[in-house]
Design goal:
Residues 124-131 have low confidence and may be disordered. By secondary structure, the protein is an alpha/beta fold. The protein contains 20 helices and 16 strands. Helix 14 crosses helix 16.
Length: 446
């Protein structure tokens, strides 16, 4: 049976030797190079499964090797070795497609875990997981095909991902899919709603505590980072974190270490952090309520989920799926739904997105006559309907322009229906007045 082969590119002989010895003890064959040009040659000539490269090489930048490895037919995972504390370089590497990074001096236990994860990328079990994505994230619109393609790419990295999108658009589902397709899929996926934790308990919840470290600490407690070790930690509604905890979270992400309350030593952690919120984090950074440095660390890669109103062609399939799900849950036969009811759903704005669609259908099942769900059974708030938008066409219009057009229609309709009362229009759309005013200004409607 062939052992995996790792390419090590570093101009320091001691580093090369340390990595070679460590990997050989893991039954991994190694090939070494002292510069970029030789490294590129070996990537082409040899059957490489993993590349570990220093960022600063005598004849160039290690990122060149990262991009070269990605261009290979097998999309070889790359681990970048950076100078201690140089997080900006690490972020740049992951934005360029690196699987992960290691800081000097190299922590051997972290190296072993990272290498194990990276080598799992080519494991055959990944194929079945990719096929399942279509059945979990429904929709044949171009928007959803693009999202599924991005999930596949993001699963091949350890980079922090910031999932943005409106409430109910499926942010946690996407986070779970990224985890399930990643090398960490056999390890925990821990999801936490940051807005649901009392502020005085946050540090203990995230980092754990030692017995007796404060009043009420009657036993040792494992924190969320420890619970997610070797797996994925999903921070939902990350915008709700207080500034005091943002500082500690930033350190945990940068140093890959945590210190439980009352503990003298730091603990190494191997956790991929995914985060999400329906709020505008960039606006919060400008306001000073969210740290800019943490925003950049969480937002190494951003994945924006489109609102349901931007992919109306997916609504019939989603409706059938949800009717089947709800009927199974309630133990009765799945009803049909009239063409008029489906058309009305496609013309509805859906401020609550897929979650709202499910709620509307659940309510309809309690009202319909037992044969077919009709338009009247949906009980749609007519004031929230907006003019029908054309299906998104990427060849004629950018996604940003398309979504802006839809948002302008929704905001204008809400203002007209509320006689240009901004407070009432914001409430109708489920937005805070500040967010509503920001959107008006951004779109030139103020």
């Amino acid at each position: 049976m062939r052992h995996p082969t790792a390419l090590i590119v570093d101009d320091e002989p001691d580093i090369r030797e340390l990595l070679e010895i460590t990997l050989k003890r893991m039954n991994i064959d190694t090939i070494s190079a002292a510069d970029l040009s030789r490294g590129k040659e070996l990537l082409i000539q040899q059957n490489i499964d993993l590349c570990l490269t220093d960022m600063r090489l005598p004849d160039g930048d290690g990122l060149v090797l990262v991009k070269h490895a990605q261009a290979c037919e097998r999309n070889i995972p790359c681990v970048v070795i950076t100078a201690h504390g140089n997080m900006d370089t690490a972020v740049k590497a992951m934005k360029s497609g690196a699987f992960d990074f290691l800081s000097k001096p190299v922590d051997l236990s972290a190296l072993r875990q990272l290498v194990t994860n990276a080598l799992q990328l080519s494991h055959p079990k990944q194929l079945s997981k990719e096929r399942r994505t279509r059945h979990q994230l429904l929709g044949d619109s171009q928007l959803m095909r693009d999202i599924r393609s991005k999930i596949d790419k993001l699963a091949r990295s350890q980079a922090p991902v910031y999932i943005s999108g409106e409430s109910g658009s499926g942010k946690e589902l996407v986070a779970r899919l990224i985890h399930q397709q990643s090398p960490k899929s056999d390890h925990p996926f821990v999801a936490v709603n940051c807005g649901a934790i009392p502020q005085e308990l946050m540090e203990s919840e995230f980092f754990g505590h030692k017995k007796g470290s404060f009043t009420g600490a009657v036993s040792d407690k494992e924190g969320l980072f420890q619970a997610a070790d070797n797996g994925t930690l999903f921070l939902d509604e990350v915008a709700d974190l207080p500034l005091s905890l943002q500082v500690k979270l930033l350190r945990a992400i940068q140093e890959k270490k945590i210190r439980p309350i009352g503990e003298q030593k730091e603990i190494n952690i191997n956790v991929r952090v995914l985060s999400a919120t329906h709020k505008d984090l960039e606006e919060m950074v400008h306001e000073g309520s969210f740290r800019q440095d943490l925003y950049y660390r969480l937002n190494v890669i951003e994945l924006n989920l489109p609102p349901l109103r931007a992919r109306t062609s997916d609504i019939p399939e989603l409706t059938e799926f949800l009717l089947d799900k709800l009927s199974t849950t309630n133990q009765h036969d799945k009803p049909s739904i009239s063409a008029g009811a489906v058309k009305a759903l496609q013309n509805y704005q859906f401020p609550g997105n897929v979650r709202e669609l499910e709620n509307i259908l659940e309510r309809a099942l309690a009202l319909f006559d037992g044969h077919q769900v009709e338009l009247d059974d949906l009980n749609l708030p007519m004031i929230r309907q907006v003019p029908e938008a054309a299906e998104y066409n990427p060849s004629t219009q950018s996604l940003e322009d398309y979504l802006e057009e839809i948002e302008k229609k929704a905001l204008t309709a809400a203002l007209e229906q509320n006689r240009w009362n901004k407070t009432a229009a914001a409430k109708q759309l489920g937005l805070t007045f500040r967010s509503f005013r920001y959107r008006l200004s951004k779109l030139g409607l103020d």
